[in-house]
Design goal:
The complex is a heterodimer of chains A (about 80) and B (about 375).
Chain A (H helix, E strand, L loop, with lengths): L1 H15 L19 H15 L16 H17 L1
Helix pairs in contact in A: 1-2, 1-3
Chain B lengths: L18 H11 L4 H7 L4 H9 L18 H14 L1 H20 L2 H13 L4 E4 L15 E5 L2 E11 L7 E7 L4 E7 L5 E5 L12 E10 L10 H39 L1 E2 L2 E2 L4 H29 L5 H27 L10 H11 L6 H17 L1
Parallel strand pairs in B: 1-4
Antiparallel strand pairs in B: 2-3, 3-7, 4-5, 6-7, 8-9
The chains are: A mainly alpha (about 80), B alpha+beta (about 375).
Chain lengths: ~80, ~375
């Protein structure tokens, strides 16, 4: 699940910033590409693609810095969904 | 004509559920009086009440929260119809929509419990406080501060160009915290909140603009909407996106009103023994209005469809729709005045008001210059994909 999520997230980010070479562990905020518009797009993409709603307490920048951390967030919230 | 809609007070307002019912509501309760509102500089309370009775304030909220679960494509159609009748009323709907959606989307369960039903029913009207005397949509220029104190917050600063500020009961205020930016829900009656009406603007003159001052306003911890920092950026971006969508729809409404006014006038007015509409140069103006109205309608609908689907592409689609619709509204409002000649410059025809209102659409919810920069950035990415 998380590998697939990571790949899908990376593909989304790379499509939006094709000039950048981004891997799963790179901090996309530190690269300087991310503005508020893209941050919102990213949240919407993750919610739509993985069928989850990200609660306010999980909307922390550290959860969105890398494809790895975003995939972990998806896995965590998906597990919560499965339990519920 | 008086400011009061003379329709019988006992009449039960029909609920607005779609474009057709919105059009009927607007034609009955808004169109005949929009110029009167414009001159009076306010929308009367009885119309605000009728809007509430029609379920128009926040129909997208869930049925259990004072709404009707309306999809956003339909909401766009409704806001287009309201914008066709009166941009000032549509402006009030826009900011109320922004506040209501924000509470529903980002609020805690307690915040939703406290506010959404009141917002959905129109018992509480919301307004959006971002701009300051020294800063527009640029959050880096925000000087209003929210300092943590005693487990809550103390708010200080001045917000301006607050649509509906003269009448609103609840302000959504963006302020600088120690860490970043936060979004705060501030009741109008909170001690230290002062409202100074702003009059005689170029357009949307009845939208009851105000400058709102916050002088040591003490707020509880539950005033903060979502965590500050990263989430505040989400709140602001999401809220402005929905406002932009409403303004795009409202701009389209202005364009449609220009088309309807111009078409009617060109059919009635005779020049040299024939109707004005027989002149090729007039036909050219009308054909461009028809074409741009249809194009704008498609762009707004596409942005709404993407919102309903939860697609992130809605953000850019909304920028494009608002840019196109607002510039088209300005262009065609100018032509509508031209078609009407001297009559178009008089208060006896609606096109002068439409012309003034249209210009405002190019400035609010992100100026068109900012929009073009953002859209151009998208072009660059699409080129290299």
């Amino acid at each position: 699940m998380s590998t697939t999520a990571k790949d899908q997230i990376l593909t989304f980010v790379r499509e939006r910033y094709p000039q950048a070479e981004i891997d799963a562990s790179q901090d996309i905020f530190a690269l300087g590409f991310v503005n508020s518009l893209f941050a919102m797009e990213l949240v919407m993409f993750v919610e739509k693609t993985f069928g989850i709603t990200i609660p306010n307490e999980e909307l922390r920048i550290d959860n969105f810095r890398t494809a790895d951390t975003m995939a972990s967030l998806v896995a965590r919230l998906s597990a919560d969904l499965a339990v519920a | 004509m008086t400011l009061t809609d003379p329709a019988p007070a006992t009449r039960t307002a029909d609920r607005v559920t779609d474009r057709t019912s919105a059009r009927a509501f607007v034609d009955t309760h808004v169109v005949p009086y929009a110029d009167v509102y414009d001159r009076a500089g306010r929308v009367p309370e009885d119309l605000l009440q009728r809007v509430a009775e029609a379920g128009l304030w926040a129909p997208f909220l869930p049925p259990g929260s004072g709404g009707a679960g309306m999809d956003l494509v339909t909401l766009g159609e409704v806001h287009e119809e309201v914008g066709r009748g009166c941009s000032s009323l549509r402006s009030l709907l826009t900011v109320h929509t922004m506040v209501s959606w924000t509470v529903q989307r980002w609020g805690t369960p307690a915040q939703r419990e406290r506010w959404t039903t009141l917002l959905g029913s129109g018992q509480v009207l919301g307004a959006f406080c971002l701009s300051e005397p020294g800063a527009g949509s640029d959050t880096s220029g925000i000087t209003t501060t929210a300092a943590e104190s005693g487990g809550g917050w103390v708010l200080n600063g001045v917000k301006t160009w607050t649509t509906g500020g003269q009448r609103a009961d609840l302000f959504l205020v963006f302020a600088r915290t120690a860490a970043s930016i936060g979004a705060f829900l501030v009741p109008r009656e909170a001690p230290g909140v002062r409202v100074r009406p702003i009059h005689d603007m170029l357009g949307t003159r009845a939208s009851m603009l105000a400058e709102i001052s916050f002088d040591d306003v003490v707020l509880g911890p539950d005033a903060l909407l979502g965590p500050s920092g990263f989430t505040a950026g989400m709140v602001l971006t999401g809220t402005l996106d929905l406002g932009r969508y409403s303004v795009a729809a409202g701009s389209l409404g202005i364009l449609q009103a220009c088309l309807e006014a111009s078409s009617g006038y060109a059919a009635r007015r005779r020049v040299g023994g024939s109707a004005l509409r027989e002149l090729p140069l007039i036909q050219a103006k009308l054909s461009d209005m028809v074409t741009d109205a249809r194009a704008a309608r498609l762009l707004v609908a596409e942005a709404g469809r993407l919102k309903d689907a939860g697609e992130s592409a809605t953000l850019m689609a909304t920028w494009v729709a608002k840019y196109f619709a607002s510039t088209a509204a300005v262009r065609h409002a100018a032509e509508a005045v031209q078609i009407h000649g001297a009559n178009g410059c008089s208060p006896d025809y609606p096109v002068a008001r439409l012309y003034r209102d249209a210009k405002v659409m190019e400035i609010i919810e992100g100026s068109n210059e900012i929009q073009r920069i953002t859209i151009a950035g998208q072009a660059e990415r699409e080129k290299t994909t």
